[in-house]
Request: fold
Amino acid sequence: MDALNAILSRRSIRKYTAQPVSEEMVRELLEAAMAAPSAGNEQPWHFVVMDDREILDAIPRFHPYSRMLEEAPMAILVCGDLELQKYEGYWVQDCSAATENLLIAAQAKGLGAVWLGVYPIEERVAGFRNLLGVPDHVIPFALISK
Reply:
């Protein structure tokens, strides 16, 4: 699928099959996310790949719009690292671009995905901090369910 077609045909998908996402596919999605532009080319992001059923099932306890994770075989949490940002505050735009690249790559690969907002809702940020042990200088930004 060409880039323009992937962009124009992308939709938020909230129903999934039980088919796992291969490690190769996850690597390709992460490569696409990391190819996003960032302020000063600092790339102040981290990606947490989650395919553990217990972790996925715990997320709806603090994120009210994440019930689709009950069916999803995996999700990727996009986080911004305040210690890696070159220009203060631009981590939000950087992580947004990485998230969109991830979504477009998923569409191009035939995967259904949806962007679940995390930041700036403090209860969602705190939920991921508690669930995953995310340090204070790393901010959970968005969750991509697939």
About this structure: Residues 29 and 105 are 6 Å apart (CA to CA). The chain has a mean pLDDT of 97.
